[in-house]
Design a protein that fits this description.
heterodimer; A: mainly alpha; 7 helices; flat; B: mainly alpha
Chain lengths: 184, 215
C-alpha cells in the first residue's frame, strides 16, 4: 500500500472518530492533535479552517443561541460540541489535502484516476478563467454593475465554459484515440 | 444547498455511503458499457463544467446571487447515470481537492443533487418534451434544484431526532423540520427559476454548438 492511500484511510478513520465522539474536551484534544500534526503550518491551517466555516457556523450558532435563550435552555454544551466538531473536521480535511496526493491514493483504478485528473486540471483552468471573468467585469465598471449587466456577464461566462468544455472533450477524445488509451 | 461537514450524524451518513456506493458502482457499470475515447473525456469535461457552473453567480433581484449547478442540463444532455457520476465527482473534488463541502455530507449531497436532482430532471424532460420543449427544459432545471433542496432539508431536519444526548440536546444539526423545510426550500424556489432558465439556454446553446462542431 502506498503512503498516500494509507493517509487516505487514516483520514477517513479520523473523520469517523470525530463524528463518534461527543465530548467537547475530546473534540478539542483532536483539534490540538491535528494542529500538532500540521507543525509549522498550524496557524495557517487553523485560520483557513476558521474562515471556511465562519459564515455557516455563525448563522447556525447565533440562531441556536437565540432559540435556546427563548426556551430557557443552556446552549453552551451544544454550541461548543458543534463548533469544535466542525472545526476539527475542516482542519483534518485541509491537513489531508495539504499532505496527501489523492491521485496516488486512488491509483488502483486507471479510469478513475484518469477522469479525476482530467476533470481536476480542467476545473483548475476553469476556476482561473472564472476569476478572470469576475475581475474583467469589476475592472470595466465604474459603479456597481446593473442587474442586466450582471446577467449578460454570467451568460457570457457560462457560454464560454460550455464551449470550452465541448472543445476540451473533443480534443481529449482525439488525444486518447491517437495514443491507443483503450487498447493498452 | 450542499451541507458542510459536522452537521450529519454517522447514523445518517454511513447508510447514505452504503446506498451511494451501490449506486456509484451501478452507474460506473452502466457508463462503462459506453466508456470509450468519446465518453470518458466528456465525463471529465462535464464534471469540470458542472464544477465551474457552481461558481458562476446568477444575479437575483435585490442584489443577492444564487449559484447554478447545471444538474438539469447534464441530465438532459448526457443521461441520469452520467449526470449522477459527474455531480458526485464534482462533490468529491470539492471536498477532497479544494476543501469545499464535506466528506461526511458527500453521499447525501450526491444522492440529493446527482441522484434525485438528475433523475427527476430527466423524468420531467422525457415526459414533457413532446408537449413543450422549453417548458420541459425549464421544469427539468427547476426540479433539479428544488427537489434536492427538499431532501437536504429533510435530512438536516431529522438530525435532532436521530442523534441527541441523554439530556435531549442535539449532537449534530440542531434544528428540526419546522425550521429546515422553509429555510432551505423557500430560497431554492427562486434559485430553481435561475437554474431553469440556465437549462433552457444552455441546452439550446449546446445543441447549436454540437451541430456546428459536427458539421
Amino acid at each position: 500500500m502506498n503512503r498516500d492511500r494509507l493517509l487516505l484511510y487514516l483520514y477517513l478513520a479520523g473523520i469517523l472518530a470525530a463524528t463518534l465522539v461527543h465530548d467537547p474536551v475530546w473534540l478539542g484534544a483532536g483539534l490540538v492533535l491535528v494542529l500538532l500534526l500540521a507543525g509549522s503550518d498550524a496557524w495557517r491551517l487553523l485560520r483557513r479552517a476558521l474562515l471556511a466555516i465562519l459564515a455557516f457556523n455563525a448563522i447556525i450558532s447565533l440562531s441556536y443561541a437565540l432559540m435556546a435563550w427563548w426556551q430557557e435552555l443552556s446552549p453552551w454544551l451544544t454550541l461548543a460540541r458543534l463548533n469544535l466538531r466542525v472545526l476539527l473536521l475542516t482542519s483534518l480535511s485541509f491537513l489531508f489535502i495539504a499532505r496527501a496526493n489523492l491521485f496516488r491514493a486512488l491509483d488502483f483504478s486507471k479510469g478513475l484516476t484518469y477522469v479525476l485528473g482530467l476533470a481536476y486540471s480542467q476545473a483548475l483552468a476553469f476556476r482561473r478563467a472564472h476569476e478572470d471573468f469576475r475581475m474583467a467585469l469589476a475592472s470595466r465598471s465604474l459603479r456597481r454593475p446593473s442587474l442586466m449587466d450582471r446577467y449578460r456577464a454570467s451568460a457570457a461566462a457560462a457560454s464560454w465554459f460550455l464551449e470550452k468544455s465541448l472543445h476540451a472533450a473533443t480534443q481529449s477524445a482525439q488525444a486518447l484515440r491517437s495514443r491507443g488509451f483503450f487498447h493498452d | 444547498m450542499h451541507i458542510p461537514d459536522g452537521f450529519i450524524s454517522p447514523q445518517t451518513y454511513l447508510p447514505a455511503y452504503a446506498l451511494a456506493a451501490g449506486l456509484w458502482a451501478y452507474a460506473a457499470h452502466r457508463v462503462k458499457k459506453r466508456l470509450d475515447a468519446d465518453t470518458l473525456p466528456f465525463l471529465a469535461a462535464y464534471t469540470a463544467l458542472s464544477f465551474v457552473l457552481m461558481m458562476v453567480a446568477l444575479p437575483l433581484p435585490g442584489g443577492a446571487t444564487a449559484h447554478a449547478a447545471g444538474i438539469g442540463l447534464l441530465a438532459v444532455c448526457f443521461g441520469g447515470w452520467m449526470a449522477f457520476l459527474a455531480i458526485s465527482l464534482v462533490l468529491a473534488m470539492q471536498a477532497l481537492l479544494f476543501g469545499d463541502g464535506g466528506i461526511t455530507a458527500l453521499p447525501i449531497n450526491a444522492l440529493a443533487m446527482g441522484g434525485v436532482g438528475a433523475f427527476c430532471a430527466l423524468a420531467a424532460w422525457k415526459l414533457l418534451a413532446r408537449l413543450h420543449e422549453n417548458l420541459a427544459l425549464f421544469l427539468a432545471g427547476w426540479l433539479s434544484i428544488v427537489l434536492p433542496a427538499a431532501l437536504v432539508a429533510v435530512v438536516l431536519g431529522l438530525q435532532p431526532a436521530i442523534a441527541r444526548d441523554a439530556d435531549g440536546a442535539p449532537l449534530f444539526f440542531p434544528f428540526g423540520l419546522s425550521v429546515t423545510l422553509p429555510a432551505v426550500i423557500l430560497p431554492h424556489l427562486l434559485v430553481g427559476i435561475a437554474e431553469g432558465v440556465l437549462t433552457v439556454l444552455g441546452y439550446r446553446y449546446l445543441t447549436r454548438l454540437r451541430s456546428r462542431l459536427d458539421a
